[in-house]
Amino acid sequence: MKTRSLVALVFIPAFIAVICFAPLWVWGIFIGLVSAVAAWELLRCTENDLSVRIRLYACVSAFAIPAWRGFGGADGTTTVVFVLFLLIMCDLIFSFRKGHTTLAIETVGSVLLAGAVMPILLGALVRLGLDEETSAVNRLLPLAVTFASDSGAYFMGVFLGKHPLAPQLSPKKTIEGTIGGFLGSIAVTMIFGFVCQLAGFSVNYLILLGYAVIGSFICQVGDLSFSAFKRLCDVKDYGNLIPGHGGVLDRFDSMHFTAPLIEVLVFWIPAILP
Fold first, then answer.
1. pTM, 2 dp
2. Per-residue pLDDT at 261
3. Contact between 204 and 271 (Cβ < 8 Å)
4. Which of 20, 138, 146, 214 is most solvent-facing, going by the fewest CB within 10 Å?
5. Element counts in the chain: helices (H) and strands (E)
6. Which of 137, 154, 257, 113 is CA-nearest to residue 208?
7. Around Cβ 206, how many Cβ atoms within 10 Å?
């Protein structure tokens, strides 16, 4: 717990600093790197015998999709996904040569999930910054909801957790932890709204409460979804890059769900306006 908390105390202020003071392209490159590592970690678990070449297809695509948006201008997602799709299809065709191992359809699906679907979802963290007036606020929102929900669930589960939530997927998750996730998300999101109001933004706290509740629910669904992948692959963590947290994908798993949700909510029902 100590290591986990210390890492959070280092990374969270760093995220805030980059979002508030660095240009969007810096944030885009950072999210691109996160996405590329997440793609590598997923394929390492789901396709352990996959060639390095094909893994690199997915990782380069996973980096390019969020990073491209950080520079503004035209959206290059279609171009990047098309190139990835073309490359993996060519590999599939050539795998039918005599004496070669044929690529399984599950492998093709895993590569497209890691290199296209997941980066598009995580890329919401960059797309939320395209509106200059609310750039920092919109990018901080999914981080606040997700990290608060994760932290609330973790600490409530550690200290009060008694009733398992989904023992087949994640033995340590409890119903008490789930409640803690909702409470943590609500508390931090309300504080975030208050800070934004002090900074001169117009805040609708009722809508923001909806962000917190729905966001925490989706966050926990995302966490369990990636836990299901780990159970299917019979691994404990996706990696060990982040002390106390596991791999990058272990830390950013639920963000693939929360970030696009916040993007949709901000577009249709904005809670914080300039």
1. 0.92
2. 97
3. yes
4. 20
5. 12, 4
6. 137
7. 8
